[in-house]
TrEMBL record:
One of its GO terms (cellular component) is extracellular space. PANTHER family: FAT-BODY PROTEIN 1-RELATED, LARVAL STORAGE PROTEIN/PHENOLOXIDASE. It comes from the Eukaryota. The keyword RNA-binding does not apply. This is SFRICE_019209.
């Protein structure tokens, strides 16, 4: 059997050998893993050295084919199969803009015939649809992919269906190898990423971060240009220029290039003060992975059973990003987020300084940008009509779609409203593969502002910064759009009654004391691997690795570790939910903010379940242990080495890779603050746990050895709405109870010296320090009046 597999891999057998053969799979599953590997070793002794690498992959795929489900034998998945699956995914996503350089995977893709393997998929109609689309033609390789073009959306959703409906992991990998060879690179990465996050047999697989797969969306074009120049010159350095541009070469032949944030040419307006936050690679990765887990086009049947309250969570995520963005605006002296109107100019522009792999630059939006033009008035009219429909439905308390009445008058209807805004209401009992992208409000809004998806070319497009989930957070207008949409949610919440004393009160429980460590933020450096942005030579393709490694050095916001300690006194042992929020105390003008205006500006810092005991309970929460946070992600090249070297991935998955895909960056827990301290308010509330029905509490047990899934929100296990108790209008007279507490605090910013700035001053401003050229001989050099002169207070100062 192994001889046949080896021969098939070398093309000596016909393509029919790749069909799903139930009898063959039964034979494979009857052989235990250890015996199978020993047999493979015996046979490998008989083959020549050039075939051993191919044999290893065949053995791997055979082992994957006999892998048992997670629930049956988790030990096999984690200790053996997950490593090989992980390595295959890493290879498929390495240098995606290049030809597939791993010969074993290339051979699989070339020899796989989709039309001859229709029975290997759960839904044959999906395969037939895919084959029809292939005959018409997919987006060509090398072109720019965006979800906001309806034809490209339909194509990539069909690709996802092919990967998702593969009957086993072997068919899944063969399909992925075929797509990697023949379909558009951007589409392939997106479809494979979504499939890995939603397939049951892909649990525990770690995807490379999007900024390493496609660095063009995360690194400025001028930095990538310097990397290309170094590649063309084969690493030849001009030391004077290297000092000015911030290029260094380490002992391990790693080239580090600075992305200088102090270069004033990047700044177009005062909104660019926030670039350190809006362009943070981890923040944009968080938003991108949220979309991957909850795509707007995906039907609920694809969702994991733990992904409940999908659209309520989507609305809450956007509201939290807006609140966190507002805190950062206050840290830089900026006011509230500006109101967005279709019929007014956008006063503040944005210059992305990004470029696609094919040389097409992201369009610039200059100051005082006029939205309404003759060519997009129909799109703006569609936006206005759809917003009016949703607003009228909220006011009436219901909406009728496809003959079905949907209520919008209870807090549980938040899911329906979220689906109306960010998703799509489908016809009942109809299963369609096609997707109508123009039913999604957010996409239509982006179409009016950036890439006009109604009138643009369906293939050769120049998407705006808003048209990619990896880059949308960079543009200030994104937050203006989201605020306009969240206003619809606020209108819905105003229909709901305020929380009563009974809703907020926890009998027998009191928060006695709250202590917060000193909160200090600062900027530090971070190295990001951007080697995938630079193309490989022919020799490097043969070696499957680049001889030159390129890192970009970025400045990023960080904070010193802190603890949150509070005492809870309880007269009984009971399960509870602890929620910790913080928000601004004053606006940018130094005025106190009313709590009903300020409630939407509170950011959820931490939420967790806790078992109270009778008496005093002292709870300590460290900043790095708070819920759903992720630390610095391991570089893919280091992950590769780690996976190859370790024998048991359990601890590696649970500890080192915790919340790898779902986590919010722990560095961005706190806003920048002020040097002298920024006034903020912390809020703690302890409420009884109202557990949702049919939930497996073991999902929260971090000591589980079979934990290969990450859980996005603990609060989803509680029946209370997300954002409770700030999600509804506050009735001051009934709001304050013993089980909650407000605490004032300050966030201090520590200024750090950066060589990026001192280098700029040393080279550019060295001949412009005019004060040193002039000697100061009088006390009136800087002022009109001698500061040492006695002044008669009775004399009019204007007369002096």
């Amino acid at each position: 059997m192994l001889y046949a597999a080896i021969a098939a891999t070398h093309g000596h057998l016909k393509h029919q050998r790749y069909k799903c053969d139930a009898g063959l799979l039964e034979k494979w599953t009857s052989i235990k893993g250890d015996g199978f590997l020993v047999g493979a070793q015996l046979i490998s002794d008989r083959v020549d050295s050039t075939m051993r690498a191919v044999l290893l992959l065949v053995v791997g795929l055979a082992s994957l084919a006999m892998a048992t489900p997670v629930t049956d034998d988790n030990r096999d998945l984690v200790t053996l199969d997950i490593k090989q699956r992980q390595m295959i995914i890493l290879k498929l996503l390495n240098h995606v803009m290049e030809p597939l350089m791993y010969k074993d995977l290339e051979e699989i893709g070339k020899n796989y015939k989709i039309e001859e393997n229709i029975d290997c998929y759960v839904k044959t109609d999906v395969v037939k649809t895919f084959v029809k689309m292939m005959k018409v033609g997919f987006l060509p390789r090398g072109e720019i992919f965006t979800l906001h073009i309806d034809r490209q959306l339909k194509e990539v959703v069909t690709m996802f269906h092919m990967l998702y409906y593969a009957k086993d992991f072997t068919t899944f990998i063969k399909t992925a190898c075929w797509m990697r060879l023949y379909l558009n690179e951007g589409m392939f990465v997106y479809a494979l990423t979504v499939a890995v996050r939603h397939r049951e047999d892909c649990r525990g697989i770690i995807l490379p971060p999007p900024y390493e797969i496609y660095p063009y969306y995360f690194v400025r074009a001028d930095v990538i240009q310097k990397a290309y120049l170094l590649k063309m010159k084969k690493g030849l350095l001009d030391h004077k220029l290297c000092d000015f541009y911030g290029i260094k070469k380490t002992d391990k032949d790693v080239y580090i290039i600075d992305e200088n944030i102090y270069d004033k040419r990047v700044y177009l307006c005062d909104e660019d003060k926030l670039r350190y936050f809006t362009e943070d690679i981890d923040l944009n990765t968080y938003y991108y992975y949220f979309h991957i887990d909850y795509p707007f086009w995906m039907k609920d049947r694809f969702m994991d059973k733990m992904k409940t309250r999908r659209f309520e969570l989507t609305v809450y995520m956007y509201q939290q990003i807006l609140a966190r963005y507002y805190m950062e605006r206050l840290s830089n002296g900026l006011g509230k987020i500006k109101e967005f109107s279709w019929h007014k100019t956008i006063k503040k522009g944005y210059w992305p300084w990004l470029k696609h792999h094919n040389g097409v630059e992201f369009p610039v939006r200059f100051d005082n940008y006029v939205i309404a033009h003759d060519y997009n008035r129909d799109v703006i009219r569609l936006c206005d009509e759809y917003e009016r429909i949703i607003r009228d439905a909220i006011i009436k308390g219901y909406i009728e779609i496809n003959g079905v009445r949907l209520e919008l008058n209870k807090y549980k209807d938040m899911e329906t409203l979220g689906r109306l805004i960010y998703g799509k209401i489908d016809k009942l009992d109809v299963d369609r593969v096609t997707v109508d992208s123009y039913r999604y409000l957010l996409i239509v809004m982006k179409a009016a502002l950036g890439l006009n998806t109604f009138h643009s070319d369906k293939y050769f497009v120049a998407p705006s910064i808003l048209d990619h989930y990896q880059t949308a957070l960079r543009d200030p207008v994104f937050y203006m759009l989201q605020k306009r949409i969240i206003d619809l949610v606020c209108l819905f919440k105003l229909r709901l009654p305020s929380y009563t004393k009974e809703d907020l009160y926890f009998p027998g429980v009191k928060i006695d004391n709250v202590n917060i460590d000193k909160l200090v933020t600062y900027f530090d450096d971070y190295l990001m691997d951007m080697t995938n942005a630079v193309y490989l030579t022919e020799d490097e393709l043969k070696k499957t690795k680049s001889d030159m490694k390129f890192f970009v050095r970025k400045r990023r916001l960080n904070h010193q570790p802190f603890k949150f300690t509070f005492d809870v006194i309880s007269d009984k042992a009971v399960d509870c939910v602890v929620r910790i929020f913080f928000g601004p105390k004053k606006d940018n003008m130094g005025r106190l903010i009313d709590i009903n205006i300020n409630r939407l500006n509170f950011v959820e810092l931490d939420t967790f379940l806790y078992k109270l005991t009778t008496g005093k309970n002292t709870i300590v929460r460290n900043s790095y242990d708070m819920h759903n946070l992720v630390r610095d992600r391991i570089m893919t090249r280091d992950l590769w080495k780690k996976v190859e070297s370790i024998t048991d991935m359990r601890d590696f998955l649970v500890k080192d890779l915790r919340n790898y895909h779902t986590g919010f960056p722990t560095r961005l827990l706190l806003p920048k603050g002020f040097v002298g301290g920024m006034d903020v308010v912390f809020y703690v509330i302890v409420t009884p746990l109202k557990l949702v029905d049919n939930v497996d509490m073991n999902v929260l047990d971090t000591d589980r050895k079979d934990l290969v899934r990450d859980f996005r929100s603990t609060v989803l296990l509680d029946k209370m709405p997300l954002g409770f108790p700030f999600d509804r209008r506050i009735d001051i007279g009934n709001f304050f109870t013993p089980n909650m507490k407000f605490v004032d605090a300050k966030i201090y910013h520590k200024k750090m010296t950066c060589d990026m700035k001192t280098r700029w001053n040393r080279w550019v401003l060295k001949n412009y320090n005019w004060v040193e050229w002039s000697s100061i001989e009088a006390d009136t050099y800087f002022v009109d009046t001698d500061i040492n002169m006695k002044v008669d207070r009775n004399v009019n100062l204007v007369d002096l």
